[in-house]
What we know:
- The structure is a single chain.
- By secondary structure, this protein is α+β, with helices and mostly antiparallel strands.
- It has two domains: 5-64, no CATH class; 76-160, Glutaredoxin (3-Layer(aba) Sandwich), CATH 3.40.30.
- The protein is 48% helix and 12% strand.
- The protein is built from seven helices and five strands, in the order H-H-H-H-E-H-H-E-E-E-E-H.
- It has helices at residues 5-18, 24-36, 41-51, 55-64, 84-88, 91-102, 147-160; strands at residues 76-81, 108-109, 115-120, 132-134, 137-139.
- A five-stranded mixed β-sheet has the order 2-3-1-4-5, covered by helices on one side.
- A hairpin with a 2-residue loop joins strand 4 (132-134) and strand 5 (137-139).
- Helix 2 packs antiparallel against helix 3.
- The longest helix is centred in the first third of the chain and has 14 residues, at 5-18.
Amino acid sequence: MNLSTESLKKIDAIVAEHKDKKGPVKLMLHDVQKQLGYIPFEAMEKISVGADVPIAEVFGVVSFYTQFTTEPKGKHVINICLGTACYVRGSQLLLDRVKILTNSPVNGTSKDNMFSLDATRCVGACGLAPVAILDEQVYGNANNNKELENAIRRIIKEENTPQA
């Protein structure tokens, strides 16, 4: 994938901002993902040069931390925990309902790029099982209350309502 000139300029600015800081790789990766929504290989190359570390080290950080993605995500990101506590409390059923509601494949993005749906492992909120996260908002006990699904329906309605 070839990045736009604008995206490449953003990456260059991020690398320049952090290159002299201690432990700059994660800082750069966070900022690139925040700006672009994902971390393309071209960004990893620029970060490697700017931080003076091997590209394998940058890729290792990207692949180790689950918050980083090398694929573009939808406008809204949904994570459904399938860790043990969530799974035994019905998170698979929740995942199936959200998949239908958003028209998103699991661990993929809807064709309209509105939603990305990811099955995750333990988000560290087992007492709230089953847990889902929509755009960094945590929804606990998500099978027994409909807050998550209502939030998704609101997004769909807002996105499909023409702006005046």
